[in-house]
Amino acid sequence: MTGVRAEMFGERIRTRAAELGWGLSDLSRESGTKKATLQNFWEGRLCRADVLFPLADALGVSPRWLATGEGEVAPAVWRQY
């Protein structure tokens, strides 16, 4: 594993949000994360696990891929219904 690079983390968020046609407000609503917090990630700051999982879920990607860029992009089924 190459580890987490903050700027690439932000790029993955921006790219996936754009694929969904979402801006910050959309992602905030869908993930339950404050816009200001998302703005920090958008600009390349890393996030805590308690934010990473809902963010990955909203974007429809795996938390591992979102954090590191490695592994499968599609999430494993981990959500409890």
From TrEMBL:
Pfam families: HTH_26. SMART domains: HTH_XRE. It comes from the Bacteria. PROSITE patterns: HTH_CROC1. This is XRE family transcriptional regulator. GO terms for molecular function: DNA binding. Residues 13-66 form the HTH cro/C1-type domain.
